[in-house]
Every structure is written in structure tokens, then in C-alpha cells.
Design brief:
It is built from three helices and eleven strands, in the order βββαβαβββαββββ. By secondary structure, the protein is mostly beta strands. The protein folds into two domains: 1-29 and 98-117 and 158-205, Beta Barrel (Elongation Factor Tu (Ef-tu), domain 3); 32-93, Double Stranded RNA Binding Domain (2-Layer Sandwich), CATH 3.30.160. The two termini are 15 Å apart.
Length: 205
């Protein structure tokens, strides 16, 4: 039994459910193929290795030669942990993730947040900033960072300017609103991290 599925974020929209407008995030779960099945005896753990086929090859018939050149035919290759060894999947098989999820099920969605490059303390940590009047020349600097322990010592974890975003983040207990089996699109209630096109991992809550 797989512990989750992989997909790509399409974007946000809204649907009607029980006469209420529900904000949802659309996830594309089409175009994934099994590239390898890992076992405890051979690899030390049970996992399913899957690859997202590139758009230029999605209409072509599958060829075993694709596995020999993964960087040419696959845009992503990821693993899905298995609870136990299984013979349900075979290498080269087109895996249908829409059959592994049910309507109304609770899931956790993990993705990488949008990168914001180098950011100051106001944007990165929500600092209030200096006074807006009385001749303040502080700008948006963080202010004193001394800890009164010893000269020049800065406490580890101090909130300072730095790189913002590109962190793995998980949204928990999101409800599956719709599973489109024809287009292989998943709709989950609420928002998830990342921009459109980001790779996301969906697991059962």
C-alpha cells in the first residue's frame, strides 16, 4: 500500500459544494510512470519510484528505453514509501493516482514555499519597523542584536535578514473536494504552499 502520491500544483479556483463557494487548489496527478520498485532484500527498504513524463512525450506509447535515459524523458523522479512489499506495481506501468484517493478524505500536502530571495526583518519576520515620525533615521534595520552575555556574541536563531522562502512546508487535514478521473485532476479544499507548477506530495492524514 502506497503512503501517498505525487503531483504538480495547477493553481487555485473555487467550486460550489452544498450551495456554498469552496476555495480549492487544483493538483495535476497525470503522467506518472513506475520506474522502479525497491524492496528490503535488494535496497534495504520498500518504496515505489515514479517518474513524471515530459509533456513532449505524454502522447507517445511507453518505451522501456525511457528508463535508461531518465533525464531525457522524465521531468521528475521521486519515491513513495511503501508500508510493505508489494507485487501490485511493475516497472514501466502507467500509475493512476486518482484510484488511490477518495472523495471527502483528509490529506496532508507537502510542497516547497515560493522563494522570496534576500529579505529584511520586516518582510521575513513581520517586524513592526522604526517609528514613522520624530526624525527616526533607523530605516528598516533590525536594531541591536546584542545579548549582554559577552561582547560580539549573537544568540543562535536570532531573527535577522536573510534568504526567505524555498522551505518545505506541509498543510495538514485538507479535505478532498473532487477527484476528476478523466483529466486526472485533484481538488483539495484550501491553499497549499508553492507556486503554479510546483511539485507536491499528497499523503493520507
Amino acid at each position: 500500500m502506497t503512503t501517498g502520491i505525487w503531483g504538480r500544483k495547477i493553481g487555485m479556483t473555487q467550486v460550489f459544494a452544498e450551495d456554498k463557494v469552496v476555495p480549492v487548489t487544483a493538483i495535476d496527478i497525470a503522467g506518472w510512470y513506475v520506474t522502479n520498485v525497491k524492496t528490503v532484500e535488494r535496497d534495504g527498504y520498500n518504496a515505489l519510484q515514479v517518474g513524471k513524463i515530459k509533456d513532449r512525450y505524454k502522447d507517445q506509447k511507453y518505451n522501456k528505453e525511457w528508463i535508461k535515459k531518465p533525464s531525457q524523458y522524465y521531468s521528475f523522479i521521486r519515491e513513495i514509501p511503501l508500508q510493505s512489499a508489494t507485487t501490485e506495481f511493475t516497472s514501466g506501468e502507467d500509475i493512476d493516482f486518482s484510484q488511490l484517493l477518495k472523495l471527502g478524505e483528509k490529506v496532508d500536502v507537502r510542497s516547497k514555499t515560493i522563494g522570496k530571495s534576500f529579505a529584511g526583518v520586516v518582510k521575513r519576520h513581520g517586524f513592526g519597523g522604526p517609528p514613522g515620525s520624530h526624525g527616526s533615521t533607523m530605516g528598516n534595520r533590525p536594531g541591536s542584536i546584542g545579548s549582554l552575555v559577552k561582547s560580539g556574541h549573537v544568540v543562535k536563531g536570532k531573527k535577522l535578514p536573510g534568504h526567505m522562502g524555498c522551505d518545505n512546508q506541509m498543510m495538514r487535514n485538507l479535505e478532498i473536494v473532487m477527484v476528476e478521473t478523466e483529466t486526472k485532476t485533484l481538488l483539495v479544499k484550501g491553499s497549499i504552499p508553492g507556486k503554479a507548477g510546483s511539485l507536491v506530495f499528497v499523503r493520507k492524514a
